[in-house]
Amino acid sequence: MVYDGRAIANFVLDYCDRKGRPVTNLALQKIVYFCHVWSLVQFKQPLVKHKFEAWDYGPVLPYLHREFKKFDRAPIKARATQLDPLDGSIPRIDDARKIEMLSIFADGFFQAQEELRRTPQKDADEDKDKRDPNQPGFFDKPQ
User: DSSP letter string over 18-72?
Assistant: First the structure.
């Protein structure tokens, strides 16, 4: 089954709340996109029924971005409110395989963020000095 991105977003936000992990709009967009791609690979079907757009900081569902724009870079404290036109309910995810996948990706996203925070950032020039001078780097100007 394919879902409205707001249902996926609400699941991710609820899951991350239970885990004590704040989610920004940017992080939410990335998690939803990674899950969508994994669904294409794993289940051979899309997870989200709408098209992502390529924005400067990654793929975005514009309606989802608008929904949470008011939070700017702060953690999202609300849920998407799009209603099902047939019964007025907020769509929910009911596929156990997809729930498991969303949980794995949400956890993995935050684990990767924590690892990046713990890893000291190297200066690009530091690596440049260690290279073989006879082997130019990919972005070096030819001499």
Answer: HHT----HHHHHHHHHHHHHHHHHHTSS-SBSS--EEETTEEE-HHHHHHHGGGT
